[in-house]
Amino acid sequence: MNDCKLIPAPAPLTAKDYRSDLKPVWCAGCGDYAVIAAITRALAELQLPREDVAFVSGIGCSSRIPAYSAVYGFHGVHGRALPLATGLKVARPDLTVLVAGGDGDGFSIGGNHFLHACRRNADVTYIVMDNSVYGMTKGQASPTTAADWTGSVLTPDGPGVPAFRPLEIALAAGASFIARAFSGDPTTLAAQIVAGIRHEGFSLIHVLCPCVTYRPEQQKEFKARVHAEWQPTDDRREAFGRLLDDDGYATGILYRNPRPAYRAPQVAATTLDAIAAGFEVAAA
Fold first, then answer.
1. How many domains does the chain fold into?
2. Which of 8, 215, 233, 268 is in Cβ range 3.0-4.6 Å of 211 for a Cys bridge?
3. Any domain includes 11
4. What is the pTM for the complete model shown?
5. Does a structural domain hold residue 4?
6. What is residue 248's DSSP assignment?
7. Does some domain include residue 247?
8. What 3-state class would DSSP assign to 196?
């Protein structure tokens, strides 16, 4: 008679299981709290093993997120999160790679990396928390700040230049998944993160995320103006047309058009002797 005992299946992971024990130091009411809640909810829905997930970030309030999650994390330097994440994904294609950043980190000092991450279409999910201000360094205007915003003592007459339009840039540069969400709707944001992770290729999730300290007007403004509008299209021309009419507050998955994700080029193994022999042949 076989008297072996059945081993119970492990309990499903919950959103709490993906949170670290560190207490966030964001300002009370910051939209980033809702974003980390949406991220952990998405990971729980996907039931991804924590050791198979890596979170990469740069510098800024939003870039603290890897420390608040219970997966592998890498806190990089300002603006360099995307090349770090791309390199990690290329070296370890088995990992699910997430990237956290803000409008300053991602679209100013990291702007060139943003363009080429879209172009390469590496299989990473980039979650950008956009509050149109440098919230960690005393409220300067950021790339996505409106030209006439006078809320900073450094630009009392406004930045005077048009705001950077990240979704248009991403579409032009070759991103294959583009979405926008509002931190005040974490359920929809979590669903977009799930869709972005499942998508093979570069996924941009642009999150309207109020800064309660330097842009307190955003809390009421976002709630009043955000409207769910977009359903995903794979037609690039149609997506551009939507963006030309965009008021900056439309949410949903704008564009989803799978194409092969970037992979590391396969280089034949060689030895130093083989390299030396090649030089000798070339010199003969």
1. 1
2. 215
3. no
4. 0.89
5. no
6. S
7. yes
8. helix
End-to-end CA distance of the chain: 78
Which domain range does residue 221 map to?
Answer: 24-283
Phi/psi at 166 (5° precision): -65, -35
The residues, ordered by sequence, that sit 6+ positions from 4 with a Cβ below 8 Å of its Cβ are none
Asked if 222 contacts 210 with a C-beta cutoff of 8 angstroms, the reply is yes
Domain containing 231 — which CATH number? 3.40.50.970
In degrees rounded to 5, what are phi and psi of residue 280? -65, -40
Q: How many Cα atoms sit within 13 Å of 122 on the Cβ side?
A: 28
Give yes or no for a contact between 102 and 61, defined as CB atoms under 8 angstroms apart.
yes
Strand partners, 205: 127, 179
pLDDT values of the chain reduced to their tens digit, one per residue, 284 residues: 566 667 777 789 999 999 999 999 999 999 999 999 999 999 999 999 999 999 999 989 989 999 999 999 998 888 899 999 999 999 999 999 999 999 999 999 888 999 999 999 999 999 999 998 988 888 898 999 999 988 888 888 888 999 999 999 999 999 999 999 999 999 999 999 999 999 999 999 999 999 999 999 998 999 999 999 999 999 999 999 999 999 999 999 999 999 999 887 765 656 777 777 777 776 66
46 lies in some domain: yes
Q: Return the C-alpha torsion angle 146, 148, 149, 153, nearest 10.
A: 130
The answer to whether 28 touches 212, Cβ cutoff 8 Å, is: yes
